Structure formats: C-alpha cells, structure tokens
Amino acid sequence: MSYHAIEPVTGLASLALARGAFGEAVAQVETVLSRLRVQPDSEGVCRAFSTYLVCYDILVSVGDGCSGAVLAEASA
Q: N or C end: fewer C-beta atoms under 10 angstroms in the chain?
C-alpha cells in the first residue's frame, strides 16, 4: 500500500469515529500504523506527522492506552 493509499484509510478512521463506530475506527488506525511502520512517508515528514496525529486523536477519543506511544512514534 502506497502512502497515498494510507491517507484515505486515515479519513475512513475519522469518519468511523464521527459516527460512533469505535471498533472500526481503531481497526483502521491499526491498518494505517502498520503501513507507516513498514513504509514511512517518502514525501515528507509533515504528511506522516499529520497522519500520526489523526491516529493519536482517534486513540485518545476511544480511550486507547496506546495513544502516547503513537505520539512518541510520530515525533521520533
């Protein structure tokens, strides 16, 4: 999956959160994070950071304890 394919999945995660489908949102976030770990953003740090930030916000919203680790990963 290219980085361009990751962005829409991040958007789907946000939409799932907005409609209260927390499990779906977290599943999408897990997909995004696994892809970012395998294939970091080759087009610039800012885009990857914003993707991590959306994932972090979703995890915080659902009370997932992994949110801090995601933020740390984003700033590494």
A: C
What lies within 8 Å, CB to CB, of 69 at 6+ separation is: none
CB neighbour list of residue 71: distance below 8 Å, 6 or more residues apart = 52, 53, 56
Instruction: Quote helix, strand, coil % in the chain, to nearest 5.
Output: 80, 0, 20
What is the spatial distance between Cα 34 and Cα 59, in angstroms, rounded to a whole number?
15
Q: pTM (2 decimals)?
A: 0.84
List, for residues 15-57, the tens digit of each pLDDT value.
999 999 999 999 999 999 988 887 665 555 557 888 899 999 9
Identify whether the C-beta of residue 7 lies closer than 8 Å to the C-beta of residue 51. yes
